[in-house]
Amino acid sequence: MPSVMLKKNAEGKLIFYVPKKDLEEVAESVEFDSPDKWGGEVLLSDGSTYYFEPQAQPDFPVTLRAKRLDSGE
Amino acid sequence: MAALTREETEALIQEVLEVYPEQARKDRAKHLAVNDQSLEKSNKCITSNRKSQPGVMTIRGCAYAGSKGVVWGPIKDMIHISHGPVGCGQYSRAGRRNYYVGTTGINTFGTMNFTSDFQEKDIVFGGDKKLAKIMNEIEELFPLNKGISIQSECPIGLIGDDIEAVAKKANKEIGKPVVPVRCEGFRGVSQSLGHHIANDAIRDWVLENRDGDESFPTTPYDVAVIGDYNIGGDAWASRTLLEEMGLRVVAQWSGDGTIAEMEKTPKVKLNLIHCYRSMNYIARHMEEKYKIPWIEYNFFGPTKIAESLRKIASHFDETIMAGAEKVIAKYQSEYDAVIAKYKPRLQGKRVMLYVGGLRPRHVIGAYEDLGMEVVGTGYEFGHNDDYDRTIKEMGNATLIYDDVTGYEFEEFVKKVQPDLIGSGIKEKYIFQKMGIPFRQMHSWDYSGPYHGYDGFAIFARDMDMTLNNPCWKQVKVPWKTDDTSKVAVAASA
Questions:
Q1: Are B438 and B425 in contact (CB under 8 A)?
Q2: pTM of the full structure
């Protein structure tokens, strides 16, 4: 259950940062991405996937707990 | 010597690794790589921020060095107590040349050493009482200090002193910020964790001091310079450029900085990060808590400066963008003259670097502006996000080494035969004795500043002065000179 810092970059894409692992990745897709429901499975550009409890869209940048589903290797 | 091909570089790494026992060889192999610009992520080719192997000569520092020496030390109007035995503070005192304005011992304390000088009895009975006494003495002797930070050395964590309780009590008594920093040297694998701990201490004890206080008048052009330690005046050379383009620099972290500036930082519009490694933590925290965006910039060499100024300006309106262009144009004749003078003398020279947090990638641009080529680089304590940023800056098939050992570095140098090495004081004399020009790139070899356009002129002069110094022709030992007549004379004697 890593803590993940999420923010939007200049192009409006989600940047995914895990401080403990120095992992800085762009999120390719987010399962639910609407103002009232956000979260679910997030696929990163390195192929790994993480899971966030679906929730109302948070105010980025924000730190959330995520579950690691697949390391992409 | 021509540049090495990818295969040659790989063979070189294998050759150097050969002397290690199997276990160490396996571990070290992960830290040495041949650069491949096509890679997006450095974790495919290099491992970093891992514990050094026992038995090798590492060049790293400790968490105390990262906190006291780098992040907290330069804050000039606070007194930083090196809490523990006297050596840690004394041997690192003023070595980093963080310049500042002020009267030392009256209202600034940068080059002084304050220590609790632990003795056996303090280890046995605890040092909390001593610490409390020291802070009262400091208050009496140096009433103009604006706060105190307690920088723990190893024994504090080992004996379990409660410095937080002492700090809270002292804070009430003297009415100034008293910050306990748990930066015992044994924490983490290098000074990098010390930076993080120091950032966290700033976050917890300083940053929110002025939350809810709106008395500080702000402008839309407020920025903070973060991660510039004013080595040899670096931050000043950077600050003038930012101010000329129309920005207002509210805070300098932490070279020539004050605690008041730090407390005001949450009011700025944009954080400018120079040393990403040591201060990205606090920038990310401010982004989340205060919604202040941050960008990295690079003020080494005219190409990167122009790039950075434009990048910074793009976060503001047209007046600042026009300001940036004006600044670049204003200095153009100056830096063109510097390049015209030194490029012919330095063209084609090859450099190997091995430094700390930002320079292994940041100074590459400055060397390239002078027509030089960086053929090897590495970080003492970088993380993978640093290497991610380095891959693109370095040429293909160049060497990258993480936490390089004394032996590896020497062997690499013998084989690659660079014209100049930029590294720290511990490496300096080895390479000078090998007859290779060397610049100490941690504190600019007692020169500087190197940031900004003014700094670039000094940088170019220093590189030329070192590389083209006639002394290098004199250092060859007599039995390796080609002059056979001397041998004949010696034999006949």
A1: no
A2: 0.93
